[in-house]
Amino acid sequence: MNGQVNDLFASLMKEDGYFLPMERPLIDQIRLTTKAGYRLERVGDSGLRCVKESLYERGRRFVNDLPTTLIGKHVYFFETVSSTQTIAKQFIPLKAKEGTLIIAEEQTAGRGRMARKWYSQKGGLWFSVIVKPNIPIKIAPQLTLLTAVAVVRAIKDVLPLQPKIKWPNDILINGKKVCGILTELQSANGSIEAIIIGVGMNVNQGKNNFPKDIRPIATSIFAESGNTIDLFSLLKAFCVHFEQLYEQYLQHGFKEIQTLWEQNCDTIGKEVVATTIRETIDGKVIGISEEGALLIKKENGKVSEIFSADLTNKST
């Protein structure tokens, strides 16, 4: 029956707005299922009508279905923006609520760490979330690591893949980058006003959709699985996991998050070269500190704490 359902969706998407006759058992199984932005409407007892949903309709359904109490209770949807991070920053002076989400179908100037350009055309999941934790500024990088755990869990929720975290802000599948995280802080009078966490996730792009220069290192969920994923289902999974981890973090501190991060990390135990703005450090990654710094044990036995660096495996 599942094969019939998949074939049906393929036919319906080709016949947008038309009726397709259907056997009763199949209709009962499908009900009003949605996939890839299409809404299926029942037509009497003998067919279904396929209607392509607008971004607004899908977004409204996403908000209504979201079981969270904080994350995603205030959502702003855009078809195209320069960057969701830029929009989020503009919302901070307007007293944006904690948990506010800014989502875009496409970014024209998406960026990652160190102002690097992030390819973010339609087919991916591009969003920023605003949080306002009462924590010291120096431990704000912990939120990047928390977010990485939420992304890994969300991907595992939708497909049996094995995403791994590469310090400090990358998610890999089979050694290729599928997601990047950018955390930016807004402060006032020496305390945190807001933290904006940007997430860029490659979801439904094919391998050939990426620019040639990043094809060897980039991938998408579709490229790794052959499955097209509903973006809002993936976003819902992220919001649920992020809220659970965020509440856990605020109540119990970073230690439990640290353990979860290390369990899902692709970097621990590897010999690496860390290039900072001041020096290059060779050694073995042994974990992360409570502040979220990478711990590298050098040949002389000394351990260095790295808060920001480009990381490469020694064998590459």
Automatic annotation (TrEMBL):
Catalytic activity: biotin + L-lysyl-[protein] + ATP = N(6)-biotinyl-L-lysyl-[protein] + AMP + diphosphate + H(+)
A single cellular component GO annotation: cytoplasm
Name of the protein described by the UniProt record: Bifunctional ligase/repressor BirA
Function: Acts both as a biotin--[acetyl-CoA-carboxylase] ligase and a repressor.
GO molecular function, one term: ATP binding
CDD domains, sorted: BPL
Domain BPL/LPL catalytic: 64-250
Family listed: Belongs to the biotin--protein ligase family.
Gene Ontology annotations of biological process type: protein lipoylation; regulation of DNA-templated transcription
Highest taxon of source: Bacteria
Keywords for this protein: ATP-binding, Biotin, DNA-binding, Ligase, Nucleotide-binding, Repressor, Transcription, Transcription regulation
UniProt cross-references to InterPro entries, sorted A to Z: aa-tRNA-synth_II/BPL/LPL (IPR045864), Bifunct_BirA (IPR030855), Biotin_CoA_COase_ligase (IPR004408), BPL_C (IPR003142), BPL_LPL_catalytic (IPR004143), Transcriptional_repressor_C (IPR008988)
Species of the source: Fervidibacillus albus
Pfam families: BPL_C, BPL_LplA_LipB
Gene name, Swiss-Prot/TrEMBL: birA
HAMAP family: Bifunct_BirA (MF_00978)
DNA-binding region: 23-42
Binding-site positions, biotin: Q107, R111, G112, R113, K177
EC number: 6.3.4.15
Taxonomic lineage from the root: Bacteria, Bacillati, Bacillota, Bacilli, Bacillales
